[in-house]
Design a protein that fits this description.
This protein is an alpha+beta fold. It has 7 helices and 11 strands. It has a single domain, classed as Hypothetical Protein Pfu-838710-001.
Length: 249
């Protein structure tokens, strides 16, 4: 981790209150997953083009998330079955910022990700009446949700110096439910967030040079696979094999 912090210290920094222009609550996402050891060379190539988010002197922020789903895993199954207009519901604590939100993500039929959220005091295993009403208003459905699993990770956030583009890299990912636990600390999950798809991204160019290709991955879905062997998984087998291959390669 000290090597990582040393490389990040070479980046120009950006403060949280300067991020308003790249909130991108409605956006197009492009994800990558690659071996952790690749991050060092990648960052050195990125340094001329990106600023790194700095919060109270820290470039690496911790996130804690608790995901909710129906008893029959509707949100997971919708993603597995490639349904459009699908949702995910979670509490997320932004530890460094001392902020916690109830967040709802919608992936619509135009491949846009739209995020709605309300601020809450803390993460709770049970949803309050107000929170249930918020979820129903956004999703348009009366659904009963239960806490399913925790997903915790550390995130490095970058902002392009010229383009309206935000880039996140998630590391040290761990997950657990009431019975099982595991981690994906051998990989980095990177995500480019743009208003609309643009191949002019310097990250995309650098990743292509390093033979790192876009890879659709949902932290909620992949950890559900790891925690619950009984869930439907045929369309995710290729992703599971890819993640496992990164571990042994």
């Amino acid at each position: 981790m000290s090597d990582l912090k040393s490389i990040l210290s070479n980046f120009n920094s950006i403060a949280l209150n300067e991020m308003d222009n790249v909130k991108l609550m409605s956006r197009v996402d492009t994800k990558f997953a690659f071996k952790f050891e690749n991050i060092f060379h990648l960052l050195k190539k990125m340094e001329p083009f990106y600023k790194v988010l700095d919060i109270n002197g820290n470039n690496i922020q911790d996130y804690r998330s608790l995901y909710f789903d129906t008893e029959d895993r509707k949100f997971y199954v919708d993603h597995h079955n490639r349904r459009v207009n699908r949702n995910k519901v979670r509490f997320r604590e932004y530890v460094s910022s001392n902020l916690t939100f109830l967040e709802i993500k919608l992936k619509n039929n135009k491949k846009k990700t739209i995020k709605k959220r309300i601020k809450v005091k803390s993460i709770n295993l049970k949803l309050t009446k107000k929170q249930i009403e918020f979820i129903q208003k956004i999703t348009g459905k009366a659904i009963t949700l239960n806490a399913k699993q925790w997903i915790n990770f550390s995130r490095i956030t970058f902002v392009h110096k010229k383009l309206k583009e935000r880039l996140t890299m998630d590391i040290n990912l761990s997950y657990n439910d009431s019975k099982n636990k595991g981690d994906l600390k051998h990989i980095v999950i990177a995500e480019i967030k743009q208003e609309r798809m643009s191949r002019s991204s310097d990250f995309m160019r650098i990743a292509k040079q390093m033979h790192l290709l876009p890879f659709r991955i949902s932290k909620y879905c992949i950890t559900t696979l790891m925690l619950d062997p009984s869930v439907k998984r045929n369309r995710f087998k290729e992703k599971e094999l890819f993640i496992n291959k990164l571990k042994v390669a």
